[in-house]
Amino acid sequence: MSHVTCEEVPLRRYGRALPGREGPTGDRERALDRQEPDPGHAGEGSGARMPDLFDLVVVGGGVIGLSVAWRATGRGLRVAVVDPAPAASHAAASHAAAGMLAPVSEVTYTEEPLLRLGTASLERWPAFAAELSRASGHDLDYRTDGTLDVAFGADDLAALDDLAAFTAALGLPAERLTGRECRRLEPMLAPSVRGGLLAGGDAWVDPRRVTAALLAALGRTGATLVPGRVTGLLTASGAACGVRLESGGHLDAGRVVLAAGAWSGSLEGVPPEALPPVRPVKGQIMRLRSPEPVLSRCVRGVVHGSHVYLVPRGDGELVVGATQEELGFDTRVTAGGLWELLRDARELVPGVTELEVTETIAGLRPGTPDNLPLVGPTIVPGLDLATGHHRGGVLLAPLTADLCAGEDTGSVRPAELAELAGLCSPLRFARGTPGPSPLSESGLAARERDFTENTTREHR
Ligand SMILES: Cc1cc2nc3c(=O)[nH]c(=O)nc-3n(C[C@H](O)[C@H](O)[C@H](O)COP(=O)(O)OP(=O)(O)OC[C@H]3O[C@@H](n4cnc5c(N)ncnc54)[C@H](O)[C@@H]3O)c2cc1C
């Protein structure tokens, strides 16, 4: 892998007026011209000159990259986001996602650190949604009516009882319901539903509206959107100083955040020990439509051993998801995947088979070896990660933005924010192998030591 340095890049820096407003440009300069803000997107109408040096360049314009960028512009930073299809990349997880903000009903016993991150981010969602709606003028379809987990058989009911006890022990809101109580809440549920658990604090949102709103809000702040692909990290004296673009240009930056979702695991110029161990986890999902709302809240269940969920939108859309498949960068929608989703959804809500199918899609979740995200500084000074959010990137977007900005919009104490940052620190994988549990203090200390040693070596 070749390591390109800023000094080696012969192109001039940004800082010219927009194309056509200044003198003729040569070929290489035209390559740069293509990186000017895209009309209709962020930066529109600003008429501003491109900065010589961005404070922050974000690689990837999914829900994570855009949230990080938006929070950074709020702090007065000069920000650029680079993505060939921001908020709309067909295989991107954010474009496929259902949008459940459901840390409680997603929780499993082995994932307590993830639950802590999820609840901390859920706490931030009301303010994040309100601020983003105000800043963009967009309605996010953000709803807070909770998630209903339902069960059919004795085993499922026992699992719900365990989950109820676990959530109660953690002090999280969850109410055990009988089958009849479930149907009173959701009359379209199957008569065979025997019980449920209502996680009243869970919420949901339309992720496509969120990313559209983030783009609009970024546009109003004068952030720069660069429609293209990043092909490499630029470094100077071992520190990140910008990115190389596929078109041949480059952007100089004080700091680079790699937020390219499932594609974050390979970027030329990033030393192997700093590359995030992210893999694509395929999720097939379908969108149905009904003239009348079928459900008033998210409904989930385990059918034939697999999880299925139904997420209603305000406009009559019903999202049914999702498969979890380890097939690399495969984004084919398959008959088998859709059949399983419909088969299981029909067990929960028999009426779904009457609904119109409006879309089927597969997105790639950025999975990590321990299912925890990778957010924060790497062993390369100036290079941060914001990736690896796997099944919960929409939920975790506000917290991720706070962690990257180093400021708290929630109510946790600074020590707690530092602990949350520790849970998702990329340094736990700094040498390519998972370290001790991210919850253990000694583990964190060991990783800090690793960081210092690695950094020292880098600088030698
Ligand atoms: C079917 C499905 C359902 C889901 N449901 C939920 C849910 O209900 N709740 C929840 O919280 N989460 C859910 N998720 C997970 C969530 O969608 C992800 O965790 C989240 O979207 C990750 O966001 P991201 O911005 O990191 O990645 P992505 O959304 O994948 O965005 C990555 C971006 O990086 C860009 N990119 C890639 N390479 C480059 C490059 N070299 N240069 C520039 N740009 C590049 C891509 O074009 C893309 O736009 C779901 C995911 C799937 C697939």
From TrEMBL:
<protein>
    <recommendedName>
        <fullName>glycine oxidase</fullName>
        <ecNumber>1.4.3.19</ecNumber>
    </recommendedName>
</protein>
<feature type="region of interest" description="Disordered">
    <location>
        <begin position="433"/>
        <end position="460"/>
    </location>
</feature>
<dbReference type="Pfam" id="PF01266">
    <property type="entry name" value="DAO"/>
</dbReference>
<dbReference type="InterPro" id="IPR012727">
    <property type="entry name" value="Gly_oxidase_ThiO"/>
</dbReference>
<dbReference type="InterPro" id="IPR006076">
    <property type="entry name" value="FAD-dep_OxRdtase"/>
</dbReference>
<feature type="compositionally biased region" description="Basic and acidic residues">
    <location>
        <begin position="24"/>
        <end position="41"/>
    </location>
</feature>
<keyword id="KW-0784">Thiamine biosynthesis</keyword>
<dbReference type="InterPro" id="IPR036188">
    <property type="entry name" value="FAD/NAD-bd_sf"/>
</dbReference>
<feature type="region of interest" description="Disordered">
    <location>
        <begin position="15"/>
        <end position="47"/>
    </location>
</feature>
<feature type="domain" description="FAD dependent oxidoreductase">
    <location>
        <begin position="55"/>
        <end position="405"/>
    </location>
</feature>
<comment type="pathway">
    <text>Cofactor biosynthesis; thiamine diphosphate biosynthesis.</text>
</comment>
<keyword id="KW-0560">Oxidoreductase</keyword>
<feature type="compositionally biased region" description="Basic and acidic residues">
    <location>
        <begin position="446"/>
        <end position="460"/>
    </location>
</feature>
